[in-house]
Design goal:
The first copy, chain A, has 131 residues and is mostly helical. Chain A has 2 domains: 58 residues, AhpD-like; 72 residues, AhpD-like, CATH 1.20.1290.10. Chain A contains 6 helices and no strands. Chains in contact: A-B, A-C, A-D, A-E, A-F, B-C, B-D, B-E, B-F, C-D, C-E, C-F, D-E, D-F, E-F. At the A-B interface, helix 2, helix 3, helix 4, helix 5 and helix 6 of A face helix 2, helix 3, helix 4, helix 5 and helix 6 of B.
Chain lengths: 131, 131, 131, 131, 131, 131
């Protein structure tokens, strides 16, 4: 169980239901995943988080599938099992193929390796990168 | 100074020079950044790391600019100053605009926020995300 | 099972039992949680860790409930499931309400977001913050 | 320099100035720190981030000084130099004494230590912590 | 299940089987652990990762048991459950005793604590450490 | 400057001087590095941290040079510049050669890479690793 449990739709306040309705309408689904049902104990955070995600993940200069893959890259680096599972599912739904996933993992793994080689060798920033 | 100092081209062994030459040819530049000059104290790691990066960052199912943005996303999450500076430069060279950078940062920031909300609320993985 | 298993009270050496007894007396409980039973394989670390925690978590300039919430903030940022579960329980026992928990999570999430925006935008420390 | 530079007040758009004005009014100061001047290249993120922080850091069930100390705890765990410098300053302004700071550091250090002992010994969550 | 499932030996391509055979021969075992069976969906990454690990973990200036303990230290710091389980097993096989494990954990815990004290107190690098 | 500044020997209380004296005697040096001079604002934490480090880093089942390399591995993974600089210096003093350092970095980099491949591919712990 989540810390405070999950708020199911029938038990939700009108304020929470309004967010749930917008999530389902925006995502064209008929269910709410556990993340939102856990946050619903704090309606202000629920609304703020959903409004932020809706704005940030919408199409812009970056495609939605690219945004979802970046979300996966962060979640993998932080090693957050729920976040990896939910955003890998979202990235697939947005069009990520097996090959795209494999390349994503290769880049994420490599970046985590070189980040530490840089730190351990105490590499200084080149002047050309400072501009 | 890096831990073991930097190996400049004129002081490099033939084995190291061969890697330097391939880096400059592949990247169409005439200089070597500090990361490689620090790694050059360990030629086996220098070669292995360069060969891996060359393969991983080449065009594939993902565009090079997307791969560089994923590299930035990991480096920002790890808060590695050298890696952020060098890969932001590489991403710009590969075509990342100011707007694309801003959206990248917005997603990375948001993902780091929700990763912690998930952990703190102890949210469990939904069955639908397990398949 | 923990790496080396758990040391139960009846199987514990007098040295380990003395620490267990002090934990139960200090916390006014009649049980020992798994963390201590796993550490008991290394009595020196068991004693040192318990003595440190007992000193650090005692009332001081900060209230015990504030200290427990700070412990949760770190554990959530590190995404350590055991630590989140045990210190959230301890924080509740020390007086943390649902509303306090929700505000704690909101701050922790936001801090993790802005930490990355700072890194990605490569923001420099203002002179006024250096004094 | 930050990645995209800093947007100073005289160069800011009316939209950005409105946020700057609100930051200064809310904080009762006459200057804007670098974080906001870097974010100002992305007015939507600037506004969203400021509105979130303003709401989250306001007095509630937790005192502002406690919230600022939690912000410091996260920033220290993530080892973000800018965030540590700016939020330590904010915490002091909100009333954190040297003694409170020292206790904060002791708890943050200890939590980071035990988080790893838990992981390394592969300690499982006690049933009593699951409710 | 892993994201893309596991590739069992009978279902593997000749390219993947060659890597599996080399893993079993090098390790003198008759089974393949899940990590490799998950990576096998991306044969290039499977081969590159195995070749790198085989080279890096071989005896050199550092003993294999020391290398495995360093691997555990990183995995514990990152709190990666699979990595802790698999490399603790490998370290034991390479000769790590219970006492060595306990000392390893004590150092890893302490290092994670002092890393944060350093960050929080904003300690600057001594001139003597810069050479 | 460190948050609270540094406590120099002539300005130190007898309690702090006693710790400084023990550090210099144990390490056979005639100076105190910044870490201890920053912690000295909180004599209880200064003493506790020094006593812990002295016990943990002493020769045991693991050699001092191995312990220092493990300290470096953690500090590199956490990307703590001060900790990397000071413990790399300590490891060298304890006998770490350039070749040992290079192998240490190779293992640390690789471990950080595979930690993320494991997370991203959502690899489950093999039964054989659970015993």
């Amino acid at each position: 169980m989540a810390t405070l449990g999950y708020v199911e739709y029938p038990d939700a306040s009108p304020e929470v239901r309004a967010v749930y309705d917008d999530i389902m309408a925006t995502r064209k689904t008929d269910w709410i995943n556990n993340f939102w049902k856990a946050l619903a104990h704090d309606p202000a955070t629920l609304r703020r988080t959903w409004e932020s995600i809706k704005q940030i993940m919408a199409p812009g200069a970056l495609d939605p599938v690219v945004k979802q893959m970046i979300y996966v890259a962060v979640s993998v680096t932080n090693q957050c099992p729920y976040c990896i599972a939910s955003h890998t599912a979202a990235a697939r739904k947005a069009g990520m193929s097996d090959q795209m996933f494999a390349e994503l993992m290769a880049v994420v793994g490599m970046a985590n390796e070189t980040n530490r080689l840089v730190a351990g060798y105490q590499v200084e920033i080149d002047e050309r990168f400072r501009t």
